[in-house]
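Researcher: Can you fold this with S-adenosylmethionine in place?
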Amino acid sequence: MTPTSEQVALHTAWFLQEELAIVRRAYAKQMLSVLGVTDPRVEAAFAAVRREAYLGPGPWPIWYLQRRDYVPTPSDDPVYLYQDALVGIIPERGLNNGQPSLHAMLIAAAVPRPGEHVVHIGAGVGYYTAILAHMVGESGRVTAIEFDGGLAERLAANFAGQPNLRTLKGDGAQIEFDPADVIYVNAGTTRPVDVWLDRLNDGGRLILPLTSDKGFGENPENIPIQRRGAVFGIKRRGNEFLAKWISAVAIFPCEGARDAGSERALAAAFEKGGWEQVTRLYRRGDLPDEQCWLNAPDWALAYA
Ligand SMILES: C[S@@+](CC[C@H](N)C(=O)[O-])C[C@H]1O[C@@H](n2cnc3c(N)ncnc32)[C@H](O)[C@@H]1O
């Protein structure tokens, strides 16, 4: 019996999805391997989540470092999304869907476990939110916060009807949320804001990108990335906060989480080097300078 044109179309669509699933499995392995991540749960999440489902229809603008510009993908074939590339969400503002290999490393450092509550700040349109949701599973939940109104609407639409996913429009440095096991911040701050430290459960992990004012956009002075931004992993242990440098970073600024005093302290700390020796975050500004990598007016990142 000759298949109907509808059957042929269905079969083709199914075949393309199967093909993409294979591409995604290879992509997941490669994204983890770039920075030496070996967590099989992170790999499974990257293999499962469809990037095109969150970014909307293509062609998509891909940022190419060699050209220092966005280049549209040749077509709307989602296969082009499965590479280690920034994809422009609002290219004219330099606002991108972040680099998969960096997120693979940061998500592995955050260790989102089944059943946990993750708060994602600066969620954009939700690709990495979906990866976090995959990792906490149906017994866990994710609260995703996005500042930009248009993106927050797209974020809400992308997760409509998903019971364990709450999306909020607003300033993630101000909005109060339920206590969290993981707070995953995806925009450049100059300091850890109080609500994040207050709302971190005992044993909880905060992924905190700290950027100087040179941490995003043009870089005419050619300052190396290591002196512009750093992501720290902060772990709460009772009333103490353990801190560990994870990576250098250049990232879009976080509204509401930047202040001049902390920026000065951060720029001085980057100038001096030694971020890998940081072990603790303190919520006070009276520590001796020799104990600190960064000594801001009311907080510090210290060696002991
Ligand atoms: C580098 S983009 C990352 C977007 C998303 N995580 C991704 O990779 O697709 C940073 C995002 O943080 C958002 N943002 C900046 N400040 C924020 C704040 N205070 N609260 C919530 N979102 C914020 C920006 O609007 C932007 O969408």
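Model: Folded with S-adenosylmethionine in place. The longest helix spans residues 5-34.
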